[in-house]
Amino acid sequence: MTSNPETDKEGFLRNTDDWNPAIAEHLAELDGVTLSEDHWEVIHLVRDYYENYRLFPANRVLVTKIREAFGESKGNSIHLMKLFTGKPLKHIAKIAGLPKPPNCD
Amino acid sequence: MSSILFVFSRPPHGSINAQEGLDALLMGSAFTTCSVLFVGDGLMQLVSGQSTDDLGTKNFSLSFGALKDYGVTGIACSEPDLVARGLNKDDFLIEVETLNAAGMQAFIRNHDKVLNF
Amino acid sequence: MIVHTINKVSALGLCDNLVAEDDKIILLEDGVYLGLQSLPFSVFAIRCDVDARGLRGLLAAQTEVIDYDDFVHLCTEADKVCSWF
Fold first, then answer.
1. Chain A residues within 8 A of B72 when measuring between CB atoms
2. Has residue C65 got a pLDDT over 80?
3. CA atoms of B24 and B28, how far apart (whole Å)
4. The domain B4-116: what is its CATH number?
5. What are the tens digits of pLDDT across the range B55-106?
6. With 0-12 CB in 10 A as exposed, 13-18 as middle and 19+ as buried, what is C81?
7. Rounded distance between C-alpha atoms, residue B97 and residue B76, angstroms
8. Any residues with CB less than 8 A from the CB of B19 and at least 6 apart, and which?
């Protein structure tokens, strides 16, 4: 990574186009998360969803999409909580380089 | 829980109404049965090929494709308003039911609350 | 029965197909100008908005002038209220 991209005061990328996997690793580190294959599955899924619909999926929608793609054992909120700590949606959005989801403090 | 019919009646990019209506619809769908009816210039929200890159705003028209994920299955538009604008359903981003005046009146009657955006 | 409120002339175009035979239309604010013409609906107009615009003698015969008390009463009788603006 040549230089750190510009972020807002909460650490979200100001420009979604700045995102790349190395930056995701960096943003995850700042949130105290080490990215594994399970993390990447979720990150790619939300990025694809955003690309298609310009929308960060609501929790229930995200869980359903993960279940459809990766099976019952991962298609639940607990899986996300374990991967991305206390507030999974906020952390996922940030690491995926997407805008902060609505209603997410 | 009351069912809600969202009526989208304004064109997409000239004001915040359309974006706010969609946000409210997606939010409402978490709590209760929500449907949506497009009338008047609101039909223009559904036109495919919208590109807001140069405008610098979010192209939220693409979000209509997510309505089924959010459990919004009642999606209809005004047939007279469709015809008046020289449009047909192939011009739209998503599958939409067309309703005549009587159909729209029944659609309204079958919901507990109606919100216009 | 559904009450439809209209607060500007252009909003009639949004809802004219949506008003059923036994529904009622209530005109308020600039919507009261619609009361000048004869409409194929049951039409009421809010008195203070009519008077402020000097329209009392100009309204179509079918347009019934009502006060806020009547407005509230009509709304409570309705199954739901739709606001067109």
1. none
2. yes
3. 6
4. 3.40.1260.10
5. 989 999 999 999 999 999 999 999 999 999 999 999 999 999 999 999 999 9
6. middle
7. 4
8. B12, B58, B60
Q: What tokens appear for C29 in the block?
A: 């604010």
Mutate to test the interface with A, among B45, B61, B64, B69 (most CBs of A within 10 A): B69
Q: What is the mean pLDDT of chain B?
A: 96
Our CA-based measurement puts residue B66 at a distance from the nearest CA of chain C, in whole angstroms, of 26
pLDDT in tens, A36-80: 999 999 999 999 999 999 999 999 999 999 999 999 999 999 999
Mention every residue, 6+ apart, whose C-beta is less than 8 A from residue B23.
A102
B59/A54 touch (CB, cutoff 8 Å), yes or no: yes
Query: Does the beta carbon of C1 lie under 8 angstroms from any beta carbon of chain B?
Result: no
Is residue B83 exposed (0-12), middle (13-18) or buried (19+ Cβ within 10 Å)?
Answer: exposed
Rounded Cα gap, residues B96 and B74, in angstroms = 9
Question: What is the nearest CA distance from C85 to chain B, expressed in angstroms?
Answer: 8
Is residue C19 within 8 Å of C26, Cβ to Cβ? Answer: no
Residue A76 sits in which domain range?
16-95
Scanning every residue of chain C, which has its alpha carbon at the shortest distance from the alpha carbon of B6? C82
User: How far from each other are the two terminal CA atoms of chain B, in whole angstroms?
Assistant: 21
Domain limits of chain B? 4-116
Opening angle at CA B7, ends B3 and B10, nearest 5: 160
- Give the ipTM: 0.91
Domains of chain C listed by start with CATH number: 2-84 (3.40.1260.10)
CATH number of the CATH domain containing A47:
1.10.10
DSSP state of B98: E
Query: Is A46 one of the catalytic residues?
Result: no
